[in-house]
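Example 3.2
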Amino acid sequence: MMLRFSIWLILFIFVSPLTSNAAPDSLQAGAAKFNITPKSFPVSMTGSFQDRQAQSAHDPLHARALVLKSGDTTVAFVVCDICLISREIFDAAKQQASHKTGIPVDHMLTSATHTHTAPTSVPLAQCRPSPEYVQFLTEGIAQAIINAHARLQPAQIAWGVTQEPAEVNNRRWYVKEGNIPLNPFGKMTDKVRMNPPRGSEILIKPAGPIDPAISFLSVQSTAGKPLALLANYSLHYVGGIPPNQLSADYFGEFARQIKKRLGGDETFVGIMSNGASGDINNYNFKEPRPRAAAFERVIAVASVIADKTYAAVKGLKYRRTAEIVMQERTLDLGIRKPDQEELAYAKKLLSAAKDPDRLTTNEVYARETVNINQGPDTVNLKLQALRIDELGIVAIPCEVFAEIGLEIKQKSPLKPTFVIALANGYNGYLPTPEQHNLQGYETWRSSWSYLEVDASNKINRQIFEMLNQIAD
């Protein structure tokens, strides 16, 4: 009897699932969202040259977090229903979250969705943030990471890519001669026009490509329960929101709809991140669009994207182990400065402004010209590259043009790879040098478009170095 017991004890020690014989890169995951809707109204909204005051929220805004752990490596993703967020806010939130969780700050990938109906968090154009809201947002981002980290559990993961070209259109167009107005600097030098009249005979062709890919990362418990889905689509935003109301736009609606399709419970977190959409929007410029009720287009677009994603998710095979490698770098880039003629023109416009507290569009650009002339000559950007087995994810703090994202996807050694834009800070539009030559809205010098002409090439060189290193 004693011999039998001893044999059973030996077998228990060496075979029992309670012992730590799992693979060192066995995956754990946790997800959470934190409500970042303002607690009081009215509140300033970002997304226009002049300040708009939101009186209420049409739907809630969230910071949506996903934490993944494999072996000794833990990474956190956060996507916020905000138009843009500064590096200072993100860095402060990361420090708070790192203090509570132990996740290194350089292993946190944080981004904004770019909804144009969110509270102002960064001074831009004539929009000014509430200091109280900035503090609330910072704490909310940190808390989303902390809560997701607290929910870590054994998990399995899969990813994929599907296509939806009908909801993305390049918004920069060549048009017939005589149909491009003066730019805000008093010059007739633009060669393309942003958001020209839809269905118009003046249209010739778009000035750039689209990226129709919906990339996604699906996370389940080891029992198959949906925990989170992080998607990525290169669509600026949709709009058509009721006036003077906040909304997470299609990003938030996608999160709700993918949860329903996957059968997720109240702990499931759907996430839509913004891809390389700096020159992309939802309008089909070839045909006039019929008028739609408020929020109708948001629901329609989110439904299409959720349907395509769900159809692709159903065929996935999940893995319970995954190697995670992440790298972060910073890069100094030059700032485009005005010449003396442009500076004189700007000062003349500002001196004639009728209402300094409510400037016209051209006067806003004039003030931007003066401010940039007085500001620094360089800026420091934060870039990230992440590998989950053969999947690549890149983070860039800009409104990245579609062709830049396509180049990264094509040349990346990791397949598939996708780009999360507006990540870890905000450094304005990122056109290619060729698009700079065409000029147009996205290149007009301002605090939302100021990087040197060769910025995209310098960023991509760093990105490809990082991707090649983490792919080894």
